[in-house]
Amino acid sequence: MVLSTVVCGSTNLAFELDHNHTNGTNVVTAKKEQSYNVRKEIALGWNKHTPCSLDIKEPEVNDELTGATEAYMADVLARYTDRWLERTKHNLGYQLNSDFNYDALGPLQRLSINNAGDPFIAGNYGVHSRDFEVGVLDWFARLWEINKNEYWGYVTSGGTEGNLHGLLIGREMFPDGILYASKEAHYSVFKVARMYRMNCVKVETLASGVIDCRDLKKCLLNNKDKPAIMNMAIGTTVKGAIDDIDLVVQTLEECGFPRNRFYIHCDAALFGLMLPFLNQAPHITFKKPIDSVCVSGHKFVGTPMPCGVQMIRIEHINALARTNVEYIATMDTTIMGSRNGQAPVFLWYALNRKGYNGLKKEVQNCLILARYLKDRLREAGVSVMLNELSNTVVFERPQDEEFIRYWQLSCQGNIAHVIVMPNMTKKTLDTFLDELVEERWIWFKDGKNQPPCVASDIGKENCVCPLHI
């Protein structure tokens, strides 16, 4: 028995490798007890690049005869695949749907599919998937209620690229405009502001996480001479809160901003594929005075690679400097140059298989399980909040970082969340709940430790700490 320790980045994974195993494969044991047991502090300049045992190795001279490199790579990939599969089963905190099967698309791995440039202008590189891409865009156009001849869009690398593009259009339309975003907006929005050197105002939020339109009104009135570029969080990352488009538009109008002096971008990374299938949900629709919407594909739909969709009103694309790139025979209208041509095929395949009815069933099941989880946590005496029409269950942060890492909970301050995605089952949630209840008994049994007060995070009505019981 040889013990090999793989150290990459900030994760220490130990694998027991039995090189004498009868079938020649390795036995992998990912040791849960090696997880961190203290809260990890992140500081630039202190996160050192640790030695990694997965260095690229130069093949030996006789490698073609011995097959040593192929055997080594197969061994490493088998170990990591086992690790990834185990981790996938215990991911509760991140917006990923791992319930997919794209085996039929395996042959695409032999092709370099590149959708460089504008999706509506085929360049001179013939191995592209623009037909699939436009098919996906047309599907989203129907979902978000805009005619084919009235939109422009493309398949992106994910929600951040969608924000980069949508807010760039806003900045180009209003070079002196001010970007307004709630303080609970996705971190990429504030990165966009830095990258584009935009003046940015962080607006306060309510305890639920939605933008506080009273504070927005004050901010707008303080800057009446500047156009407004609004970022709407259609589902905040931590609390799953949905900004009210109608109320924001009303606030803009009350503050004296006519339609030609504001731009609205909707960051709907997860909820852009959920709200349209809920009868009582506010509509994400271009029939309202919005200008762009972006969504992630790897989140609710579920794909092996990060991807997304960005869509704007077609007249806005002219705000970009539409450079004609002669050597690829297309226009430069996207953030990226070369673009993943496989992503549109995967999205096209998934949307065809699921359809509107399939997605609607998945959305409804997620909300049912989210309410079940919220109720079980409340019964166990845990402070918990679930926003209406949301699959993000927010609760008091567990005391043990090992427990957090094992279940891959996403945390912020004194709160954590579980995002109930289509791949999750009631059995998985019950296992998590049983372990959490057992751990809480250990943490608080002697009375010295008390559950944290999270009233300021999720509201007094949702906090059951000793102060608010």
Task: Domain count, please report it.
Answer: 2
| Span of the ends, CA to CA | 54 Å
Decide which structural class fits the backbone: alpha/beta
Mean pLDDT: 90
In percent, how helical is the residue content?
25-40%
CATH architecture of the largest domain: 3-Layer(aba) Sandwich
- Helical segment tally? 11
Strand order of the largest sheet: 3-9-8-7-6-4-5
Sheet with the most strands, sense and barrel status: 7 strands, mixed
Looking at how many chains there are and whether they match, the oligomeric state comes to single chain
The CATH class of the largest domain turns out to be Alpha Beta
The CATH homologous superfamily of the largest domain corresponds to Type I PLP-dependent aspartate aminotransferase-like (Major domain)
What share of the residues does DSSP label as strand, in percent? 15-25%
Named CATH topology of the largest domain: Aspartate Aminotransferase, domain 2
- Radius of gyration, Cα only, in angstroms? 24 Å
Protein name: Histidine decarboxylase
Cofactor: pyridoxal 5'-phosphate
Modified residues (N6-(pyridoxal phosphate)lysine): 299
Keywords: Decarboxylase, Lyase, Pyridoxal phosphate
